[in-house]
Design goal:
Length: 310
């Protein structure tokens, strides 16, 4: 870590983005007291992560990417155990576990062994275990990685509800759509340093320019890149799609197509795209985020709930 400085407001959803190895997990592990900082300072829910780690742990809920769930226990047994570990008396532990299983949609599977759960069900159970003590701050480390779109939307919906009830959410994710849909603010970390921070809208406004995505017939990509560079700033290609940030926006599309045609290059498809968080990420780090290519739920599929926090 080269040193980062960030502040998350109470009642906010904060999305923490970065490529693998950038320092996301290290940062989260320090904030949840699993790793001692080697320098600097940090407070969570008003408590110093080094001097008052027990108070930090009582104030937070943590759902890490790799959930440590006993496959031989049932969902109900696991929830009761977690509630007991947090000091809830027997009757209250039973009640709280049942409430949370219902809340995350696992009531019907409560008495099945966790080993029979799907990946989405396990992720929802892990989220439920992180909520048994009603934490002020919830840390979610890539909570929807590897999930299908339906399961992903279910997690998003629950995060929104938690935030509406006052929970601050600190979310690490590789999915730009996830950050765009959920977060009040986004922080981008690269090589251990903060590369950018702001609301999704403000970050996209910094980029400003739309970009053109073009697929060229086989064998013409290198020549096309030379032609397209005359009309704006080339961007890293993605899955064979050439991209250029246009100097004059939509008015450049026709000249680009004519120039490619004059060069004898066949355009198979083209698309004018408005700035996205992926564009911001490329601008700030020089590369695409690993999860940017994976299928994401469409915004029209999402519940129109309030934004979230961290």
């Amino acid at each position: 870590m080269a040193g980062i400085d960030l502040e998350v407001s109470e009642g906010e959803i904060y999305a923490f983005l970065g490529p693998n190895g950038a320092g996301k997990t290290t940062t989260v592990r320090m904030l949840v007291t699993l790793l001692a900082p080697t320098g600097g300072s940090a407070t969570v829910a008003g408590f110093d992560v080094e001097r008052d780690a027990p108070s930090v742990r009582r104030a937070i809920g943590v759902a890490l990417q790799e959930a440590a769930l006993d496959p031989l226990m049932t969902g109900r047994e696991l929830m009761h155990l977690q509630s007991t570990l947090h000091g809830l008396p027997g009757d209250e532990a039973t009640r709280r576990g049942g409430e949370l299983l219902t809340r995350v949609g696992l009531a019907d599977a409560a008495d099945r062994r966790v080993g029979t759960y799907s990946g989405g069900m396990r992720r929802r159970l892990d989220l439920a275990t992180a909520l048994v003590h009603d934490p002020k701050v919830l840390f979610l480390d890539e909570p929807t990685t590897g999930l299908d779109p339906v399961s992903r939307i279910a997690i998003w919906d629950e995060v929104r509800r938690l935030n509406e009830e006052g929970t601050t959410v600190f979310l690490t994710t590789q999915y730009l759509e996830e950050a765009d849909q959920l977060a009040d603010r986004v922080g981008i970390i690269d090589e251990g340093k903060m590369a950018a921070e702001g609301t999704p809208a403000a970050l996209k406004a910094q980029i400003g320019r739309s970009h053109l995505e073009i697929v060229i017939a086989e064998g013409g990509s290198e020549a096309a890149e030379v032609v397209m560079a005359r009309f704006g700033d080339p961007m890293p290609s993605k899955n064979g799609v050439l991209m250029v940030a246009l100097e004059h926006g939509a008015s450049d599309v026709a000249p680009v197509v004519r120039a490619l045609d004059d060069a004898g290059l066949c355009v198979e498809s083209l698309n004018l795209v408005q700035p996205t968080l992926d564009d911001v990420f490329v601008e700030k780090t020089g590369r695409h985020l690993e999860g940017a290519d994976e299928e994401q739920p469409r915004p029209s599929d999402l519940p129109a709930d309030e934004p979230v926090s961290a």
